[in-house]
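Exercise: predict the fold of this chain.
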Amino acid sequence: MYIIYERCSYEYKWSQQNLNIGALMKLILILSTLMAFSHVQAASFLTEAQADMVLEASDNICGDTWCEGDYDYSFNAFICDSETKSCDLTFEYISYILDDETYDIIGEERAEFTCTIENLTSYDQMIEIRNSYEQLTHELYESVGECTDEFYDLAPEVQ
């Protein structure tokens, strides 16, 4: 009888440990799911289409403003974070290499930079409709201009 009691006691302890491990695993799974979901919710307040529209609107005004200088620009990414209430704008300065005689483009040099634009929380702060076209708001227009000016001295040398 003593041996049976020991064995039952051992099986009871073992099943109790499994129950605790199982409950712990469920808790870890629930917490990791909640953390992943909260990270996804906080990641961005723009859809991909909205971010693309911000980039397109930046390109559309480029010819009339900051792009009249020595460089062409390529606006490549606009990624927003609702937790920091900011967006990172990634762009490139492009310097074309011209043939000395024909002035045809024979190459290019690119330099990519990213700047952070603060205090953005919604698409309405970035894009407005004027003259039936989606355009940058005045505030974002100024911020993009400051962004491109910030790295101007680091752009590739003009050929």
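Check your answer against the key: The chain has three helices and five strands.
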